[in-house]
Design goal:
The structure is a single chain. The chain is α/β, with parallel strands linked by helices and about 350 residues long. Helices cover about 35% and strands about 25% of the residues. It has 10 helices and 14 strands. The strands form 2 sheets. An 8-stranded mixed beta sheet has the order 13-12-11-7-10-9-8-14. A 6-stranded parallel beta sheet has the order 3-2-1-4-5-6, sandwiched between helices. Helix 5 (about 100-115) packs antiparallel against helix 10 and helix 8 (about 170-190) packs across helix 10 (about 320-340). The structure holds nicotinamide-adenine-dinucleotide (NAD). Nicotinamide-adenine-dinucleotide binds near residues 14, 36 and 175.
């Protein structure tokens, strides 16, 4: 029988716990250690999963001969911790965003190339079963992402890093909306340029709690991103993709409308088809709009499985470092446009 892969987690906060649950649900994986600079947090998680706690990452890496390390620390530390783990010889799963600056991302890619380990960045919604069904169709004309969420002041006050440029790297875009931005650009294709406004209207924080961006995709289609954490009490995320051969609407990670021309047996009237729905029957799960700690495990489990497949078969994970760079580039372009009041072309 193949040996189970030995996993360790760096960062035992909200998402670290979810990684522990996801790893321990997989027959091919074994969680052996967790690390946090706050020793009580490492101890608490270690007690739940019967593994060894560490308060020093280097010590965990030196002692545990880990095959895979999950980096679940604040966003602006992902690069430092991922590079430490890669240099220690481990494959690495990094939470989103990959990092918050281009320089840190380039360094991660360089170290990954140099060490030859596998690197994946969590973008769990790419693994949602409904989203996996969507394929490009016809001439795409419009792609929108709407993220009207609520986060209280207490949420931002719950960690000194939240809502800061230095460690969160941004606000509602870099933290909450990166999932929808990644899925939008994955389905619609690369973004060529952006023009944006951002503001901080509701919370005491450095970074933005509301943002609107106009997008031009490389294929010529137009699009928008509208996002806030100031929309009490928080409603569902919506991703829309429209073209001359179909329309797709994804609400809260589930397909709520799908109509493709290739499935039509009769011509649609010159005025369109109205609101007839072809939707998935997937049951509703917990929504991250309401509570990030209530995130469904399923898609994280599928992404970790994809990484295990890449390690075992010497393949490439679906969301490697190069793929994970794109949504961060879009967000950095939006920040630049909001700052300079200019359209920003992405390279
Ligand atoms: N995929 C998702 O849906 C999702 C959801 C929530 C958070 N996240 C991401 O996960 C990351 C963590 O978010 P969170 O909400 O769990 O934050 P958190 O503050 O709850 O947890 C972060 C933990 O990292 C620890 N830490 C900080 N520096 C460390 C160091 N040098 N060594 C060891 N541990 C250290 C902190 O003590 C803290 O316990 C962020 O990048 C966030 O964007 C992703």
């Amino acid at each position: 029988m193949t040996k189970k892969l030995r996993f360790g987690i760096i960062g035992c906060g909200v998402i670290g716990r979810l990684h522990a649950e996801a790893i321990t649900s997989l027959p091919d994986a074994q969680l052996v250690a967790v690390a946090d600079i706050i020793p009580e947090l490492a101890q608490k998680l270690a007690d739940t999963f019967h593994v060894t706690p560490y308060s020093d990452i280097q010590e965990m890496l030196a002692r545990e001969q880990l095959d895979v390390v999950d980096v679940c620390t604040p966003s602006g530390q992902h690069g430092e911790h991922a590079c430490q783990a890669m240099r220690g010889g481990a494959h690495v799963i990094v939470e989103k965003p990959m990092e918050i600056s281009r320089a840190a991302i380039e360094e991660m890619l360089r170290v990954q190339q140099e060490t030859g380990v596998k690197l994946t960045v969590i973008s769990q919604h790419r693994f949602d079963p409904d989203i996996g069904q969507v394929r490009a169709f016809g001439r795409l004309v419009l792609g929108n992402a709407l993220v009207p969420w609520w986060r209280s002041q207490a949420y931002y006050d719950s960690g000194a890093w939240r809502g800061t440029w230095e460690l969160d790297g941004g606000g509602v875009l870099m933290n909450q909306s990166i999932h929808s931005i990644d899925v939008l650009q994955w389905l619609m294709g690369p973004v060529k340029s952006v023009f944006a406004y951002t503001d901080t209207l509701v919370h005491r924080m450095e970074t933005e709690d509301v943002a609107v961006a106009i997008l031009r995709f490389a294929n010529g289609a137009l699009g928008t991103i509208a996002a806030t954490t100031g929309a009490y009490p928080g409603t569902g995320t919506r991703i829309e993709m429209y073209g001359d051969k179909g329309s797709v609407v994804i609400e809260d990670d589930r397909l709520s409308y799908l109509h493709l021309a290739r499935d039509d047996h009769e011509e649609v009237s010159p005025y369109g088809a109205g609101r007839e729905q072809r939707a998935s029957s997937a049951p509703a799960g917990p929504s991250a709009a309401q509570n990030p700690a209530a995130l469904a495990l399923r898609s994280h489990v599928l992404q970790i499985k994809d990484m295990i497949r890449a390690i075992r078969k010497n393949g490439t994970p679906l969301v490697d470092g190069y793929a994970a760079k794109h949504p961060v580039e879009i967000i950095l372009g939006i920040y630049e446009s909001a700052r300079t009041h200019r359209e920003v072309t992405l390279s």
